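Figure 6 in text form: structure in, sequence out.
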């Protein structure tokens, strides 16, 4: 990828991140205490962001949401409230595709699908 293309991709991702930060949905550690409280959090998050999904799609995305919400709390929210934006139930690959229109994978053709895995370097050696 050329430097100018990388610059444009960076700007697009930054713009999306900034636009959604102010519309984030806050939650506390109590919301993460059990699957029942996490499901209630997921429902409130979806209503807040006006995310409409069929029940089967919600059930498929719920583990992604749980992982992302816990990762955000562990990484940034130990002092109280955490915030999760409209991308809360999306995988890294989905966010990347949405933001850039590009599909990426690592050398094995696999890239873990949680923000936590991304932060741990699971997608560090991505090739387009």
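Output sequence:
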């Amino acid at each position: 990828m050329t430097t100018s293309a990388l610059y444009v991709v960076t700007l697009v991702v930054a713009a999306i991140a900034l636009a959604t930060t102010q519309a984030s949905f806050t939650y506390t550690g109590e919301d993460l205490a059990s699957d029942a409280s996490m499901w209630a959090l997921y429902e409130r998050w979806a209503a807040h962001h006006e995310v409409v999904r069929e029940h089967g799609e919600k059930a498929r995305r719920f583990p992604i949401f749980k992982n992302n919400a816990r990762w955000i709390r562990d990484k940034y929210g130990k002092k109280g409230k955490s915030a999760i934006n409209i991308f809360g139930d999306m995988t890294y690959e989905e966010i990347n595709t949405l933001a850039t229109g590009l599909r990426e994978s690592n050398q094995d053709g696999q890239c873990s699908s949680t923000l936590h895995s991304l932060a741990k370097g699971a997608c560090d050696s991505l090739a387009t």
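Caption detail: The longest strand covers residues 25-27.
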